Amino acid sequence: MAGAERKKILHRVADLIVERAEDIALCECFDTGQALRFMSKAALRGAENFRFFADRAPAARDGQSLPSPTLMNITTRVPIGPVGVITPWNTPFMLSTWKIAPALAAGCTVVHKPAEFSPLTARLLLEIAEEAGLPPGVWNLVNGLGEEAGKALTEHPDIRAIAFVGESRTGSMIMKQGADTLKRVHFELGGKNPVVVFDDADLDRALDAAIFMIYSLNGERCTSSSRLLIQDSVADDFLARLTERVKKIRVGHPLDPQTEMGPLIHKTHFDKVCSYFDKARAEGATIAAGGAREGTQGWFVQPTLFTGARNDMAIAQEEIFGPVLTAIRFTTEEEALNIANDISYGLTGYVWTNDLTRALRFTDKLEAGMIWVNSENVRHLPTPFGGVKASGIGRDGGDWSFEFYMEQKHVGLATGRHKITQLGV
Questions:
Q1: DSSP H helices in 256-397
Q2: What is the pLDDT of residues 90-113, one digit of tens each?
Q3: Residue spans of beta strands (DSSP E) within 45-143
Q4: What is residue 6's three-state secondary structure?
């Protein structure tokens, strides 16, 4: 199908997402326990993803002209072929659009396996795409467990690439499973992301951003700022204000407009998150807020803050993936950088300072694929999204997505009768 035709269909998908945004948001809340205030925005963000890549579809195959003395060299891109997309259970609708929209814009066919904990909106999204005019068989939905359906997908010889969002350990397994068929992989994996607050920062805004980036979306966010690195000279006051705010976060029914934090996705995950409360006590950290179940029914946990932590503690090194923040004090810029980088992950980093030269120095040496200075995570679709170290391989966003879903092709056309070396004359 021509790129211009793909563009029309993908824009129609975006239109229908907007029309059904309320249905999508409600299903997302039912599936995940996320607060409605965030899920309604996630649905509209999914529409934006489709519009962005729809507009890029007509030029997806464009290349370069690279002339040499004897050849006209041209490049083009072609779709890599059938791709597998495996998406997680946190904000599953938005993350599905983020992967599938560029694959379709590039001209690939897709087999999508959503997380088994959150299958509902994947079905809605496929129905919307087919109503928009996507031909049958272009987008295929397969539900199942990762150990069965996911493994079948990652090992299948006809699947040319796997785009996966999830745990670092699972990404390693997928890479092993795809090795025999030399699959291309794109992984967006875990994070234990630092938010570094220096004493010259706008502390009010830093406080708002630090709270939002760990306690929104129930803390089930790969880019969450789960390690707070706070400079000693302002730590006492900052942590006191932080503790007071954390205790006031409204936990409740996801469909209640006043709710800021709902229940965790599943008992399995609830048990994992709660296990870190005992680990914090055993390691000698202070539980300044939370640290317990909320209520007696459902998988609700209290927004939790650990203080007095060291970076070698499990609560500072391991991805908890819940509404749990670990605070660590530092004295110097060099110490802050060492703490920030002393981790197996490298997805995002957040730096708060009004010293421009410090911001440039620090971000240059911070080991992370994405860094925001004096800001929370504000996603701009043309920019590359992805991490380093155990946080992933490859980048999403803009043309980086097409680099994954398409193959480069070079064609050299002779412009004359250049000398060809003769053998056996």
A1: 267-283, 314-317, 333-341, 356-365
A2: 999 999 999 999 999 999 999 999
A3: 71-79, 83-86, 110-113, 139-141
A4: helix
